[in-house]
Each structure stands twice: as structure tokens, then as C-alpha cells.
């Protein structure tokens, strides 16, 4: 039985999203001025023409337990996303109500696809947000990181929690090309489950139309270069690490900070991977915070791509 899909605007009709062309209410400059002083850095991404601004972000699930409640974090999340304006955003850990909040804050030009990892609106989502002026979903599906990938909520490798993938085949309205986007979150405790998950994702990527580029976003819960999961995902050159392949990049920070001081030159556990034919013009780790409040316990990662 297919997993139900949720979307902000029209429920199950994933492939019917139209390119609305609706602008945000204010310019980025006006929004920045209204936000007041911001801690940490903003940066200018070289997004122009046909370049695709891709982003991965572990949202940290919504909680009412202080500190760092969702009510405290949501305004900072809203401002970060308004400043970034990604075309494609793979998220991890979002709960249904939290994703609805983000969709409302992004505004009507964005839509999203996803389902809860326990089915329906239950548990965390691997939701994929997209700018409807730029991207049109043509098909989507989900699979679970287990020996029974099409059994909703299955977990057979000893992982601490259920894990899954959401993938979408998009039509890029700017280039009239198609590409695949896959979004995931690997287990935080079991190395065995992570390695099996990486193998399954690699296998599924190999079964997609080889003529179309791939973009993979996710929280992999291991450091790039220092774990077999990274090697499996790159699969001997089948995928490239956008951070490493980028023509230019921002300062490196550990992408998980846990609301503690940022760690320069720390571990990247949140990655954007692409097929080798995709050129990464710029990659960045976004350290935006406001009044000492970060939007999440992870830093979002950006990549400006040419498919």
C-alpha cells in the first residue's frame, strides 16, 4: 500500500503543482532590515540564471520543552529561509505541524512533498520543499531503509528508529531538464544500519534513469571522509560531494552544534551529493542566528548547482 503523501497546498496531487510565479511580500533587503541585528554571518550565494540553489537542513523536531522550543526557533528559521530562498530544500526531522508552519512562513510560491516515517502524519518527515516558480514535480515515492523498503515503518537492521527516503523527479522550468532529488536521514546510533542504508540508497540510485542528474540531500550522522558510509554513498565516483567539488565555498563548521558554540573546521555530517556531471559553483554552511538563538541544532548546507 503506498504511503500517504502530504503537501501544503493540495494533499495527494503531487504532480499537479503549477509554477505560480508569486513573489514574496518583501524584498530580501527589506526583510533583513526589519529583522534587526543578526548574530553570526550571512553570505551572498552566486545564484543566477539557470543555477539551482539546493539546501539540506535538519530542522530539529518541534518541541515545547525549553530551551530552544519551536516557538523560540520558528522566527529565526523563517528569517533564515527568507534570506536563503532555496529552489530545492531537503529537510530532516520535521513534524507535520512544524512543516505546516514552515510552509506558511515560506509563502505561496513554495510547496512540499513527504510522509511521516511511521506512515501518514505520524513521526518525522523527510520532506522536500521546492520553489514552484522553478521546479515542477513529475513523480515521487518513498522507501524505508530496511530489508522491506516498501513496508511503511519497517526497520530490520537494528536502527534506533525508523528511517526512510523521499525522492522526487523534478522538471526544472528554467532549463527544461529533469533531475532526481533524494532526501534522507540515516540512523544516529547503529553503524550497521547506516551502512546497510547507504548500500540500499546506492542501489536504488542505480535503478533510476541514468540520463537524468541526481541530487541527494541528507543528514548522514557520520563525518565525511571518516566513515565507510561516505565511501558507499560516493560509490567509486557514482556521486560527488558538492562541498569538495565546489568551485568556491564558505568557511567550514561542524554541521551539528547542539546549540553550543560553533566548531570551525569540524565534521560535516549533513551532505549534498550530486551525480558527476553536475557542477557545483559554490557550497556554504550557513551560521545564521539571531539574539543567540539558532533555528536548529544543525547548520544548513547550501550548494549552487548547474545540472
Proportion in helices: 10-25%
As for the number of domains, it is 1
| Low-pLDDT sequence parts | 8-42
Distance between the termini: 34 Å
Structural shape: globular
**Assembly type:** single chain
Largest sheet: 7 strands, mixed
**CATH 2nd-level architecture:** 4-Layer Sandwich
Series of H and E elements: HEHEHEEEEEHEHEHEEEE
How would you characterize the overall build of this protein?
This protein has 307 residues and is an alpha+beta fold. It is built from six helices and 13 strands. The strands form two sheets. It has a seven-stranded mixed β-sheet with strand order 3-4-2-1-13-12-10. Strands 5-6-7-8-11-9 form a six-stranded mixed β-sheet. Helix 2 (70-84) packs across helix 3 and helix 4 runs parallel beside helix 5. Mean pLDDT is 89; it is low at 8-42.
Write a concise keyword list for the protein shown above.
six-stranded mixed β-sheet; seven-stranded mixed β-sheet; alpha+beta; 6 helices; globular; 307 residues; Deoxyribonuclease I, Chain A
Topology readout:
Elements: H1 28-35, E1 52-58, H2 70-84, E2 88-92, H3 96-106, E3 110-113, E4 128-131, E5 135-144, E6 164-172, E7 177-185, H4 191-206, E8 214-219, H5 228-234, E9 240-241, H6 242-245, E10 248-249, E11 270-274, E12 279-285, E13 301-306
Parallel strand pairs: 1-2, 7-8, 10-12
Antiparallel strand pairs: 1-13, 2-4, 3-4, 5-6, 6-7, 8-11, 9-11, 12-13
Helix pairs in contact: 2-3, 4-5
Amino acid at each position: 500500500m503506498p504511503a500517504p503523501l502530504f503537501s501544503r497546498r493540495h494533499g495527494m496531487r503531487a504532480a499537479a503543482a503549477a509554477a505560480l510565479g508569486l513573489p514574496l511580500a518583501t524584498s530580501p533587503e527589506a526583510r533583513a532590515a526589519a529583522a534587526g541585528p543578526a548574530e553570526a554571518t550571512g553570505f551572498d550565494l552566486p545564484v543566477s540564471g539557470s543555477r539551482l540553489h539546493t539546501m539540506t537542513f535538519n530542522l530539529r523536531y518541534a518541541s515545547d520543552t525549553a530551551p530552544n522550543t519551536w516557538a523560540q526557533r520558528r522566527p529565526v528559521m523563517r528569517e533564515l529561509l527568507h534570506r536563503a530562498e532555496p529552489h530545492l530544500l531537503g529537510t530532516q526531522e520535521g513534524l507535520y505541524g512544524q512543516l505546516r508552519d514552515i510552509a506558511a512562513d515560506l509563502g505561496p510560491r513554495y510547496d512540499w512533498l513527504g510522509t511521516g516515517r511511521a506512515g501518514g502524519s505520524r513521526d518525522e518527515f523527510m520532506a522536500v520543499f521546492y520553489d514552484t516558480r522553478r521546479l515542477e514535480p513529475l513523480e515521487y515515492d518513498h522507501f524505508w531503509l530496511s530489508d522491506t523498503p516498501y513496508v511503511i515503518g519497517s526497520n530490520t537492521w537494528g536502527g534506533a528508529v525508523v528511517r526512510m527516503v523521499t525522492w522526487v523527479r523534478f522538471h526544472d522550468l528554467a532549463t527544461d531538464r529533469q533531475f532526481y532529488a533524494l532526501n534522507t536521514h540515516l540512523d544516529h546510533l547503529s553503524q550497521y544500519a547506516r551502512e546497510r542504508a547507504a548500500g540500499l540508497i546506492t542501489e536504488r540510485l542505480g535503478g533510476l534513469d541514468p540520463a537524468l542528474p541526481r541530487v541527494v540531500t541528507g543528514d548522514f550522522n557520520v563525518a565525511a571522509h571518516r566513515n565507510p558510509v561516505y565511501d558507499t554513498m560516493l560509490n567509486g565516483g557514482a556521486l560527488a560531494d558538492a562541498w569538495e567539488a565546489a568551485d568556491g565555498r564558505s568557511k567550514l563548521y561542524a554541521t551539528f552544534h547542539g546549540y553550543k558554540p560553533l566548531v570551525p573546521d569540524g565534521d560535516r555530517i549533513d551532505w549534498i551529493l550530486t551525480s558527476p556531471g553536475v557542477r557545483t559553483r559554490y557550497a556554504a554552511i550557513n551560521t545564521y542566528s539571531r539574539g543567540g538563538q539558532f533555528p536548529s541544532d544543525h547548520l544548513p548546507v547550501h550548494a549552487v548547482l548547474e545540472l
